Every structure is written in structure tokens, then in C-alpha cells.
Amino acid sequence: xRYGMLIDLRKCVGCNACTxxxxxxxxxxxxxxxxxxxxxxxxxxxxxxxxxxxxPCMHCKNPPCxxxxxxxxTEKHENGIVTADSDKCIGCRACIIACPxxxxxxxxxxxxxxxxxxxxxxxxxxxxxxxxxxVVKCIFCIDRVAxxxxxxxxxxxxxxxxxxxxxxxPNSEISKLISMHGALxxxxxxxxxxxxxxxxx
Length: 201
Prior knowledge:
By secondary structure, the chain is α+β, with helices and mostly antiparallel strands. Helix content is about 20%, strand content about 20%. The chain has one domain: Alpha-Beta Plaits (2-Layer Sandwich). It is built from 7 helices and 10 strands. Strand 2 and strand 3 form a beta hairpin. Keywords: 4Fe-4S, Iron, Iron-sulfur, Metal-binding.
């Protein structure tokens, strides 16, 4: 089994619902986003269009971040999900440099969303797992997946642009859609073998 995600760029409308759902699920501090959506423009005026490129962690089959981690804080699980252990992380940031997808972020401070106010109960609960001086990343909502649920970003996608499933099962929905539409991973030439595929618009 190897979990992966398919993102249909023809359907993505750049609403950032995935970003908000991810924040709610993981309780990330202010300034930390596991799910980013990049915006870019195609064509020429007056026929130009705004396009969107969601960029979660690619959960590479051959993750360069894991190779350079001197503390063993990065782990690739049997199901293909790549995680970062803040208890082991020494904050060297080698993984940030090694990742070609800008998927990792360094916590300089655990900042709350409302400055000069007491932390909310939600922040008090969620922020316990975030440590200043460590690196964090998207973990494909591994706890939800263990319960048989899709990642929060997939569950909340309003346009149905995201599909999650087993890349090694040829009969899974994700495998069929990748084959049907010729979906490709981002920057496959790097040899990282990403587990996130895109259907280009």
C-alpha cells in the first residue's frame, strides 16, 4: 500500500478551503500552513486567466528530506506517508533545504492568531504538539487515515478537485483517474517519486 493524492487543476478554484480545513485539523500556529495554494496567470490580456496550484507535501517514495536528516526525525511509514517527529527534530533545517517542493516550515515562534489576547481553548489544546525550533509539515492527516477517513483537505474540497487513495491498487479510484487522464507528479524529473499527482487544466 502507498497512499497518494490526485489534484485536478481543472476543478481547483483557489478557494483555500483546503488550507482552512488543514489548519482546523492540525491546529497549526499562525504563519504555518501545511497546505498552500499558489496562484499564477496564464495567457495574455484580454484572454488571461488565473490558475491555482495546491502544494501539499508530496510524500515522496524517495524523500530527499529523510536522507539528509541527521536525527532520524523524518520517517516514511509502510503506507507511504512521510512524517516529521518534533521530539527528535534538532532544528538544523537540512530537510527544508533538501525539499524541492517547499513543503517544510520552521517554527521560529509558536504564535497565536489573536495578538495581545489570551490563547483560545482550541489553541491551548492544539499548540501543545508544536515546539519552537522544530520543522513541521503536512502528514496526510495520518490519524484520520488510520480511522478510514480521507485527509481533511480532501474531505472539504468544495469542487471535488482532490482524490485520496492507494496508488498501488490498480482498481482504486485514484489509480484509475491517474491512468485515464495521464496525471503526472510535480517535477518528476527530480527522481523523488512524489505521491501527489496532478491533472493539468
